[in-house]
Amino acid sequence: MNDAELMVLPLVVRIERATPPERTDAMEAAAMAVLSLLDDPGEWVAELHAWEVTGRIRKVVRRARGAEWRRAVALPGRTIEHRTAEVRVHPPVPLDAWPRDLARLQVSGTELTDTAEPGPAVPPTLWENPALAMSAGKAMAQAGHAAQLAWWASDAAERAAWRAAGLAVSVRTAAAAAFEEKVAAGLPVVRDAGFTEIEPGSCTFVAEAPWLYGKVTRS
């Protein structure tokens, strides 16, 4: 497959200078935005299908504030508001054909922190690999991948229960030993393609829920 055939899912996180979101909130919002599109693509069924049939689920997170955010919101898409975070998911686009108002947004170096310890995790939980150093933007994309693999691994009844819970997820950083155990447990695991920041094949996230054990899925 050449680059002209590749599709990418654009995600935009709102980061105002005075009120940046918490890192965990932003990752959870990104995952929920992806799930929202998978569950109900609405008028973007064709774009979603064209993206998925490539066999790759590439996502790119860009950041916006002020007028940049307002221009992003004016484009086709869907905004997820989750505690301190706002993330907008747009329909998949060809890798080299981003809408201009999205293409001009910054992508690298998106950094966020948590000012307080996140509360108890509620399944499904997307566990971040503690051994990897990822920017917040990279981690948001990887959390989106983990949510998508978990969705694909869920059957109709499991998806219905998840939908009834608002497609909520928890994102947490695992302890090193626990992460390796989860990777070996038959849970959906994200293995990075290595386009940015980390080595190809690195395990970045594991998705865990009671119904996901033994459901190894593609990444």
TrEMBL record:
Which Pfam families does this entry report, sorted A to Z?
A: PTH2 (PF01981)
State the InterPro entries in the record: Pep_tRNA_hydro_II_dom_sf, PTH2
- Matching Gene3D superfamilies: Bit1 (3.40.1490.10)
SUPFAM superfamilies in UniProt: Peptidyl-tRNA hydrolase II (SSF102462)
Catalytic activity as recorded in UniProt: an N-acyl-L-alpha-aminoacyl-tRNA + H2O = an N-acyl-L-amino acid + a tRNA + H(+)
Q: What class of enzyme is it?
A: hydrolase
Give any GO molecular function from the UniProt entry. peptidyl-tRNA hydrolase activity
The alphabetized UniProt keywords are:
Hydrolase
Identify the EC number(s): 3.1.1.29
What is the name attached to this protein's record? Answer: peptidyl-tRNA hydrolase
